[in-house]
Amino acid sequence: MPTQNEQAQVRAAIEDWALALSAKDAPRVISHYGKTIAQFTLAPPLITDEGAEELRVWFDSWRGQIRYELRDLSITAANDVAFGHGLARLTGTKTDGEKADLWFRLTLGFRKISDTWKIVHTHESVPFYMDGSYRAAIDLKP
Known about the structure:
Strand order of the largest sheet: 1-5-4-3-2
CATH architecture: Roll
Distance between the termini: 33 Å
CATH class: Alpha Beta
Shape: globular
Oligomer: single chain
Largest sheet: 5 strands, mixed
């Protein structure tokens, strides 16, 4: 039977992971991952298993801090499997001066490994306009 303590542990892991993203701290982000992870990120390719070096390269494409905000986070935990889903907002300025402000959907899958909740699956997505343009709907706000 899942306990509130397990849900709190998963929530704490998600919050620390998001803080590590904001701080552009690749080792800390990666420390939340299991040995294997399936990542369905906003950027191509369709699926990736990028590690710390790829994350550092992405962090280097931003000026200063990245703001990573979570909203409406829902957690479900049972035994050694858990997931969290909600909305995420990414804001900041790229090195070329482009400003980003994007809300997207986020789902994280966890396994309890050696009594620690580790992310083994990430899924980020934005809806797209079904008006024939197939443009990503990056202007949506909650």
